[in-house]
Amino acid sequence: MFDLISSILKYIFTLIIYLFIFGVIRLIYLDIKSMNFKKSENEGYPYLKLINQRENLDFKIEETYMLKNHISVGRGNNNDIVIKDPFVSGKHAEINVVDNNFVLRDLNSKNGTFLNGEILQEGFAYLKDGDKIKFGLIDFLFVDYKA
Amino acid sequence: MLRLLNYKHPVNLLVAVDIIAFGLLCYHNSSKAFDWKTLLAGVIISVLFCITYLIIVKKGMGDEYLFLIVAMLSSLGFIMIYRLDNEAGFRQFIWLLLGISLFFLSYFAFIKIKTWSKFIYFYIGASFLLYILTLVLGTDIGGSKNWIIVGGFRFQPSEIIKVLFILFLACYFKDPDSLRFPLNKPKFLNTRLGRSLFLMAAVYMNVAFLFLQGEWGTVLLFLLVFLAEVYVFDKGKVLMLVNSAAIIICAAAGYFLVYHIKVRFDIWLNPWADISGKGYQIAQSLFAIAAGGFFGTGIGSGRPDLIPAVNTDFIFSAISEEMGIFGGMAVILLFFILAYRGFKIVMKVEDKFNKALALGIAVQIGIQTFIIIGGVTKLVPLTGITLPFISYGGSSLVTSFILLGLLQALSSGKAQRSGGVDKLDRE
Questions:
Q1: How do residues A119-134 score in pLDDT, each as one tens digit?
Q2: Nearest-CA distance B325 → chain A (Å)
Q3: Is B362's pLDDT higher than 70?
Q4: Could A20 and B72 be called an inter-chain contact, meaning their C-beta atoms sit closer than 8 Å?
Q5: What is the rounded distance in angstroms from the CA atom of residue B68 to the CA atom of residue A67?
Q6: DSSP label at A108?
Q7: Which of A6, A11, A12 sits opposite B300 (nearest CB)?
Q8: Which helix (H) or strand (E) holds B145?
Q9: Half-sphere exposure of B358 toward its Cβ, with a 13 Å CA cutoff?
Q10: Comparing B404 with B60, which gets the higher pLDDT?
Q11: I need a labelling partner for A16 at 20 to 30 A (CA). Which of B34, B75, B236, B332 fits?
Q12: Angstrom distance (rounded) from CA B229 to CA B175
């Protein structure tokens, strides 16, 4: 009886150990990825920084997104920033550069785009350093060192 | 239930491993119905690991993966030792408690005391004192005269010297001038060459003492750690080449002059020649690993007790037999990511003393693992040394946890020898 249980459990045991190793390596990978970004961050472009704990999200998302020119946000794969969150619309929002200013525009998304906790009323807004942007459940921080 | 076993929370998986293994062992060790003591040991150890991990994460004590990896390794070791020998398992439990307390102690001591790099002579002196004490008071256990017994409490001084040796090397590579000859008389002794000679003298004295005690594994470990540090921190190539040559010559001389080393080599080349005598250990180890297959016989179903010294040197063979090749590879993988984390910390810390210390610790854990796992799988000649965090043995476990505490302190960034100290020195 003991031998039977033991030989069944050994597969589960091995599986759990490898899941553990996979989990640790995943965390280390996320850790290194965020470290690499800080090094390449030399151009001084503004960027979006993820506020949520990336470990808790079920979908793939980057820690930071550089903003060089036009950028679209949404659930569809043809967006520049793809967020597979069910609360994000297929084409959710976009960020444009107008005369060196960054403009956040909502593309009639179902759940709306929030800037500093308030829904975008006129559908667009100028961004400044430290602004909090929310698409669906995901929060980003807009960082612009030049300002 | 399955949500708890998500790979995104490795600490849950750690607890699951402990619970499964100890739940199984409850039925194994006693012929009676159910062994509550075993389950209790498993629960206490899981809770202890969880609490320690949470403290490290919540208090921001630096790298949180180091302890997670080590907790898994020591769990696997503890499970195996408990399965092999109930009483040894209980003692290992006490050592684990002591090890974790010393982990925190060395963490805080390293951060609080800012002058660790000033005591180079203390590290050398303490090492040599311990060697001499071992030679005078030492007791012979298992072929090597390397134990000191004080009032029923026994320990292996060479394990403590492992910490002192790394600290000593780190001091030297921070500032070679700290190893000054006290007199100014023979001028050449105070040049760069003279200091290198002093360094080599100190290292080879260590090696000579260990040689007298018959600790071949530790000799190899110290020399390789020394070479690694020289390779990384010494700018010229001369010291590296000279030492490599010296080590190769010593090894060759040892092979022809020292009976023990020759025997080890011959067994390595062909253990089947004298399978009932000198080759018995390694042959049993190979049989055990082979018996395990891919997934092992299952915990408690194999016969690892046939291997000599299975608790200490050959624990890897026991793990391979009962948890299979996959279990063995998991252990090696865990050591890989542990050493890798160590190297990452080396790159991150600023101060040279901290860098050299972190490198010493990472390299020592890595090489020690290589020497013993390579030994029991007949990849390299077998030399008796413990597998860090896994093998049974108080001195070894406690030393490993002290080293881990130092590495944790280095990773936290709170231990920077704030440029201030350096500036004062230059003025």
A1: 887 777 888 888 888 8
A2: 10
A3: yes
A4: yes
A5: 37
A6: S
A7: A6
A8: strand B144-150
A9: 29
A10: B404
A11: B34
A12: 14
Instruction: Give the closest of B8, B65, B298 to A6, CB-based.
Output: B298
- Give me the residue from B8, B300, B341 closest to A23, CB to CB: B8
Instruction: Note which residues in 301-340 of chain B have CB less than 8 A from chain A.
Output: 301, 322-324, 326-327, 330, 333-334, 337, 340
For chain A, say whether B250 makes contact (Cβ under 8 Å).
no
Closest Cβ opposite residue A16 in set B17, B322, B333: B17
Instruction: For residue B23, give both structure tokens.
Output: 């739940």
The Cα–Cα gap between B284 and B46 comes to 32
Task: Name residue, tokens 């394990």.
Answer: B159
Q: What confidence tens digit (pLDDT) does each residue in A15-58 have?
A: 999 999 998 888 888 877 776 665 555 466 788 888 877 666 77
Tokens of B89: 């398992």
Which of the four pLDDT bands, split at 50, 70 and 90, describes residue B227?
Answer: very high
Query: What pLDDT is recorded for position B420?
Result: 39
Instruction: Answer whether A17 sits within 8 Å of B330, measured CB to CB.
Output: yes
Check: pTM over 0.95? Answer yes or no. Answer: no
Q: Please provide residue A82's backbone torsions phi and psi, each rounded to the nearest 5 degrees.
A: -95, 120
Determine which of A20, A30, A32, A60 to mutate to test the interface with B (most B C-beta atoms within 10 Å): A20
Contact B383, B375 (CB under 8 A): yes
pLDDT of residue B424: 38
Closest-CA distance, B354 to chain A, in angstroms, reads 20
* Residue B164 Cα, gap to closest chain A Cα (Å): 30
Hunting for tokens 């190539």 — which residue is that?
B237
B299 touches chain A (CB under 8 A): yes
Mean pLDDT on B376-391: 90
**DSSP three-state, residue A83:** coil
Min mean pLDDT across B143-152, B406-415, B417-426 is at B417-426
Length reported for chain A: 147
Distance, CA of B422 to CA of B427 (rounded, Å): 9
Tokens of A53: 């704990």
Strand partners, A115: A118, A133
Say if residues B356 and B362 touch (Cβ distance below 8 Å).
no
Other Cβ atoms within 10 Å of A99 Cβ, number: 5
Counting Cβ atoms within 10 Å, is residue B114 exposed (0-12), middle (13-18) or buried (19+)?
middle
